[in-house]
Amino acid sequence: MSESNLSKGDLEELCRAFGVSTDGVKADLVQRLKQLSSEVGQNPNSVEETGETSLGNCDVDDQGDHVFEVNDFNIDPVAQSLKELAYQMKGKFKQPPLSNKIAEPDNPYTNTEECTNRSKRHYQEMEFDNPLGNLVLSEFKKLGNVMTNFNDRLNSVAMQYDSLCTIGTELDLAKESRSFSEVMTHIEKASALPNTQDNWLKGKDTLIEKAKALAEEKKNKRQKTTSLTENRESLFHKPNY
């Protein structure tokens, strides 16, 4: 309830001001003041009978120029009138201005640029005040660069190893091929692999040239063998005259 905004002590002072009993808990005091407020609304002179100063006899200067407006919130009119009475009798409970809009607190972190600048200044101050931290940070940066270079080197070596394995496989297939065309096909596949300046594959071209030479030699031997066989057969099958 809206009247709970007043503390029990404030309610007791109101009860004393209007000559109402202060016995009981906060809810009892609120109930008595509600009843008194309704009686005041029905009979404006009822407060004078209590022996206390009535609102009708108050000077204009005592009341002041305070205007109490009720907004769209669901505010109990009895509680509102109690607050007004408390302010007029004692001048102690100032009615706060009622507003439908709640002011948003300033948030220093809503401005991204300002937050970024603040962080930069913070880290700059840390670097200036902590030279040991600067040294550790510098070493970590160096370690990060070393790890990056190592990863790049590892990837390069892995690619070169794969290429070397592929070349070896193609040359083995070329060695086992029965025809010269198959031999040259595998050698051309090995030759099509990307070149590299690494020591691992510097001998790639030499290996391929040797494979080509062996293929040519193998071809020549086959041709020679075929020619000898044909000559031998021709001698055995030479017609008699």
Number of domains: 2
Order of helices and strands: HHHHHHHH
> Which bin fits the share of residues in helices?
55-70%
Distance between the termini: 141 Å
Key attributes of the depicted protein:
single chain, mainly alpha, 2 domains, 241 residues
Describe the overall structure:
- The protein is mainly α.
- It has 2 domains: 2-90, no CATH class; 140-229.
- The protein has helices at residues 8-17, 26-42, 60-63, 77-90, 112-129, 131-176, 180-191, 204-236.
- The longest helix is centred in the middle third of the chain and has 46 residues, at 131-176.
- Pfam families: SAP.
- Residues 215-241 are annotated as: Disordered.
How do the strands and helices of this protein lay out in sequence?
Blueprint: H1 8-17, H2 26-42, H3 60-63, H4 77-90, H5 112-129, H6 131-176, H7 180-191, H8 204-236
